Amino acid sequence: MHRALALYSGGLDSLLSILIVKEQKVEVIALKFLTGFVFPLKEQDLFYSQNFGFQIKEIDIKRKFLTVLKNPEHGYGKNLNPCIDCKILMLREAKQLMLEYEASFIITGEIVSQRPMSQKRLLLIHIEKEASLNGLILRPLSAKLLVATKPELDGIIDRDSLYDICGRGRKKQFSLARKYGIEKIPQPSGGCLLTDPLFCKKVNDLLTHDELTVENVELLKIGRHFRLSEKCKAIAGRDAEENEILLNRQRGIFIYPADFKGPVILITGEFSDREIDKAGSICLYYSKNKNVPMIIKINGEEIRKNFNIISAEEIIKYRI
Ligand code: SF4
Question: Are the beta carbons of 17 and 27 closer than 8 angstroms?
Fold first, then answer.
């Protein structure tokens, strides 16, 4: 039996592509690349994998992706999404895995002209060349609009069973979803945080302060973020769960109300009394009781201190 690797985002297009190829008696292993800006595999992904009979694997490329994000050769999309370089990176990684999994080609859910940045016909060819995968990337949803790939020429895949979908419409994909019995339709793509303008504001802050690390990106997913100085940030938990996550961190300074009725604030980077005062007054702003002292926890030691509350105008100034 022939085997293919699929770039799997968790979105409808990548799922359909897998099912189309599986129908042709090709075993598919889906690869979910973890860039740090997409969500790991969810229950729904595992459900698809079990119900439709394909393996699914997470591949961690967070560090490599950050190098791309800091300086993408092909630039950014509408927000901070470096889609062209991201695709090239994923395909290069997939190419390396082809040997390990004894796969003879790669599948993607790309659709010609669906997205402005990475899915124009010429760009698809360029991406393929950059990843040194000429003729080895099959895009089942748009294959009939593209030059025949090696698996088609070798008779592994019947070109007549592939599709000629083009553009942003979703009608044909929905009809295919019905054909394959996909009841809960996933998003077209897997949901990348780098397409969210609000999230990108926080990423841009890390980029401009040269603080873009895997650990700092992880922290962007929780809490309210404040830039206290060029080298110092504060993150305030928004609920008990986020407070717990912040408190469980090994490094940093923590500030929280002595009665625990408020946020935990984590201070990261280089700080002085000035930054501690700012963080303490932010903590008081979000605390339930405004007359309560704060606990400052440094290296396991706890100090009690009273702070003046910050004004709403000032909060806006510091909020990222
Ligand atoms: S949207 Fe995000 S995950 Fe998708 S190609 Fe662009 S950067 Fe990569």
Answer: no
Residue 252 Cβ contacting ligand 1 at under 6 Å = no
Q: Could you tell me if 162 and 143 are in contact, meaning their C-beta atoms sit under 8 angstroms apart?
A: yes
Six-digit token string for 43: 């229950």
* Ligand 1 centre distance from Cα of residue 17 (Å): 18
Give residue 173's Cα distance to chain centre: 23
Look at residues 270, 199, 188, 262 and name the one whose alpha carbon lies nearest to residue 233. Answer: 270
- Whole-number Å distance between alpha carbons of 139 and 18: 10
Question: Does the residue 210 lie in any domain?
Answer: no
Residues 53 and 156 in one domain: yes
The model carries a pTM of 0.91
97, 242: one domain: no
90-103 pLDDT, tens digit per residue, is 999 999 999 999 99
Nearest CA to ligand 1 atom 2: 192
Q: Are residues 50 and 181 in the same domain?
A: yes
Strand 105-107, strand 3-7: pairing: parallel
